[in-house]
């Protein structure tokens, strides 16, 4: 909470006699109030984000809307305030605007209303849509050239976000899918805790061993999320849609009826049929986590974004956690696709705010900040240097769980499949896939092939509808 | 009315059963038992929420752990201080009170006109007001947001109260209530030449205490529970309302686990003000809050 | 409606009294509604961006969509179940509350609190408690009765859970009105029946229900509106419309099309159609009650 917003808040409700109370609750930042300066009153009516005069120097306030809650949200707050301390005359108001979806909607509404945030975090699958909406400026035009050398950024990250040679947004929180497993459960089931399964069949076998030994109720879980399917297709070097995954032209066809896709869904549906997959619900990240951490399952498919908190969570629940690479069919490994989100800047910003946003983005992706970001969460550092430095410092030797994710990323071979798909209707495609899986595992089960046909048709329908809109 | 023709065709055992059931249904004990049972079922989620709000994250996940937990009141403390729920509660309270006062005042005036004035297109005006019940909030959001920006209201108290200070339900309820007020009273007022506003203040409002209490409760709860609109239109976190604050709690995770104890504590805290309003106003509510029609 | 003598005649004054309400409604409800109607003839990208006029394409898309027809069917079924369920349960509880001699206030407050709980918070908490594999309620249900409640994959179960939760959430609102209505029935009307020793159940059906019929009508209308518009957070947080669209209510589909699938134009058309459907239902309900409701006194 900042002094400027508090002042406006107080002014708004002051008439109702609440001023005193608000003053009390805002006490923690009271120490800063003396330098509000005499110019404060004239700034009362300006909205957040305007340039306001304060004790001689120009201060530019930029709003940063994101979707990170809890510990990660707090980390962003502290990064923002650190930046303020070292930057001259820039204030960053970081606000969580709910989920990714809510952040995107709030941002678009604000852009249309003419009062946008300077930086908005948009999930990876909103990339095509954000470009098509035409309301954002490419990030490479905003960052001062001398501040950033993009050669130094991770290839797989740049490959995802660079479209037609232009980097539209600043890669920020990038992750991919890995599996976590319960080492203690492995041990008590007579499995080698240092040799987790690497294949689809291996997961089923390990699950059976785990449940037979009574170590857990169900072998494995992960959110019913299309993201995992996308990863498994990439590992088999299978694109999700045509036209090089929508990167050589608008996607028009979906590839859910491909052999690669059938392999994935056959396995996943069978796993459920065998009672070895606990269905936590559609996109139910926290339920899946709960099932694993409370030791109902021995394995968990999840994002690398939570390695740090999950390792600690396992310890609190009395077991040791290991990380393993995404299991694949027959050990085929083309690589994984970047997930997470990137940071976007609206076109309509005035130049002072645009410059400030550029400064902040450049600072945020410096190795020092990226190292902190990486080690506290599990999201990748987007800079190669950050990884090298951490290696030199011995971080990965001390924290082998982090190494799995980095290895998996580095081994990824560049191809249209591993660059990830671009679709304007990605959110809808994901919903179709997830609902499709539910109909595969219902009691009156329809065959996997049958449902995949439906999924293909529905996704292609959505693609056609979208393409017709943008053409 | 007391005759019992429809049971004539029933067989004897079924009649006996029926009589026994009826006798049971008519006893006082039945009333208490049935009430207690029904209410226990209705209240179960709250009881569980209160229990969980005192538990640590690990305890919440042990489904067999149904006792008060080791966290005590610390979840409440964390929610109120670290997650700023105190401030959000104040914001919500200001918003809700403004909406209640505004809505009750405007609706009383409108109902006064609808019931005690003869003017052209009365019925049409009333229908025009009622139809607004049918416009769902989610779709209105986009144009409304634009309008707020054009008015310069975005991010202000006005934006979260203005759109809600008129309502079809309140006008409807006051209108129905006014129509049930005995004509003789109206007649007296007319003979005495009392003006419309003093008629409202001196006659109608005192006679509508229960209805005003009822509308206030419903409006307060409705306002207090706003979520989607404040989330979109209020961009300063310090001006945000409590329901959005609870949403922030849901994102709070500790060592990878959602902090359900904290969420439950937040939910219980946010439930207190509307409950307090209910408790404070339940008497007039019970006694006079009814829809009558002449 | 009776013809009673209205004491005031000034059209200007009436206008002045109505102006505040009308201004607010026109600016904040009618204007956005008209804007929505306009948007229903456009297609859009992100929210309102990239608008293109497409005529009645959006309506044609709805008319030919099997998914939309199913959504319509599910919504009507849901509304019927919620209206009947809510009224039946709340009438039962209200009548008991009315009949109880001791502790009425305590019981009343205990019965209506869920109404004070925001729907979104209620949905979050209940999802946690009712989760098929992880929830505390499902755990005990299985432990005590052996029943598993896998409403994540079973359409009918998901629908049932949703109806139960929606009814539970709306009980308080109904009870408030019903208890007040029962309390308002003049003793003189019920005395003779009581003296005749009419049983409790028959008193309710024969004496009270006709006398509180205006309240019942009001509640039927409000519950219908709630079922069509207000149950959105429950679907959004608990079932996301699934499984197999079994809980894909119109209001949820509309919201998802607008905010997740970025088709605000289509969602606007859905909203216009929904407005039409609920208006017709409301008209029928009011017509029916005009003819059948018993207005006492």
From TrEMBL, chain A:
<dbReference type="InterPro" id="IPR019546">
    <property type="entry name" value="TAT_signal_bac_arc"/>
</dbReference>
<dbReference type="Pfam" id="PF13416">
    <property type="entry name" value="SBP_bac_8"/>
</dbReference>
<dbReference type="InterPro" id="IPR006059">
    <property type="entry name" value="SBP"/>
</dbReference>
<protein>
    <submittedName>
        <fullName>ABC transporter substrate-binding protein</fullName>
    </submittedName>
</protein>
<keyword id="KW-0732">Signal</keyword>
<feature type="compositionally biased region" description="Low complexity">
    <location>
        <begin position="41"/>
        <end position="58"/>
    </location>
</feature>
<dbReference type="InterPro" id="IPR050490">
    <property type="entry name" value="Bact_solute-bd_prot1"/>
</dbReference>
<feature type="region of interest" description="Disordered">
    <location>
        <begin position="23"/>
        <end position="58"/>
    </location>
</feature>
<keyword id="KW-0813">Transport</keyword>
<dbReference type="InterPro" id="IPR006311">
    <property type="entry name" value="TAT_signal"/>
</dbReference>
UniProtKB/TrEMBL annotation, chain B:
<feature type="transmembrane region" description="Helical">
    <location>
        <begin position="199"/>
        <end position="224"/>
    </location>
</feature>
<dbReference type="GO" id="GO:0055085">
    <property type="term" value="P:transmembrane transport"/>
</dbReference>
<feature type="transmembrane region" description="Helical">
    <location>
        <begin position="29"/>
        <end position="52"/>
    </location>
</feature>
<feature type="transmembrane region" description="Helical">
    <location>
        <begin position="124"/>
        <end position="145"/>
    </location>
</feature>
<feature type="transmembrane region" description="Helical">
    <location>
        <begin position="151"/>
        <end position="174"/>
    </location>
</feature>
<keyword id="KW-0813">Transport</keyword>
<feature type="transmembrane region" description="Helical">
    <location>
        <begin position="260"/>
        <end position="281"/>
    </location>
</feature>
<dbReference type="InterPro" id="IPR000515">
    <property type="entry name" value="MetI-like"/>
</dbReference>
<dbReference type="GO" id="GO:0005886">
    <property type="term" value="C:plasma membrane"/>
</dbReference>
<feature type="domain" description="ABC transmembrane type-1">
    <location>
        <begin position="89"/>
        <end position="281"/>
    </location>
</feature>
<dbReference type="InterPro" id="IPR035906">
    <property type="entry name" value="MetI-like_sf"/>
</dbReference>
<keyword id="KW-1003">Cell membrane</keyword>
<protein>
    <submittedName>
        <fullName>sn-glycerol-3-phosphate transport system permease</fullName>
    </submittedName>
</protein>
<keyword id="KW-0472">Membrane</keyword>
<keyword id="KW-1133">Transmembrane helix</keyword>
From TrEMBL, chain C:
<dbReference type="InterPro" id="IPR050809">
    <property type="entry name" value="UgpAE/MalFG_permease"/>
</dbReference>
<feature type="transmembrane region" description="Helical">
    <location>
        <begin position="12"/>
        <end position="31"/>
    </location>
</feature>
<dbReference type="GO" id="GO:0005886">
    <property type="term" value="C:plasma membrane"/>
</dbReference>
<feature type="transmembrane region" description="Helical">
    <location>
        <begin position="151"/>
        <end position="168"/>
    </location>
</feature>
<feature type="transmembrane region" description="Helical">
    <location>
        <begin position="72"/>
        <end position="98"/>
    </location>
</feature>
<feature type="transmembrane region" description="Helical">
    <location>
        <begin position="264"/>
        <end position="284"/>
    </location>
</feature>
<feature type="transmembrane region" description="Helical">
    <location>
        <begin position="207"/>
        <end position="229"/>
    </location>
</feature>
<protein>
    <recommendedName>
        <fullName>sn-glycerol-3-phosphate transport system permease protein UgpA</fullName>
    </recommendedName>
</protein>
<keyword id="KW-0472">Membrane</keyword>
<keyword id="KW-1133">Transmembrane helix</keyword>
<comment type="subunit">
    <text>The complex is composed of two ATP-binding proteins (UgpC), two transmembrane proteins (UgpA and UgpE) and a solute-binding protein (UgpB).</text>
</comment>
<feature type="transmembrane region" description="Helical">
    <location>
        <begin position="107"/>
        <end position="131"/>
    </location>
</feature>
<dbReference type="Pfam" id="PF00528">
    <property type="entry name" value="BPD_transp_1"/>
</dbReference>
<dbReference type="GO" id="GO:0055085">
    <property type="term" value="P:transmembrane transport"/>
</dbReference>
<feature type="domain" description="ABC transmembrane type-1">
    <location>
        <begin position="72"/>
        <end position="285"/>
    </location>
</feature>
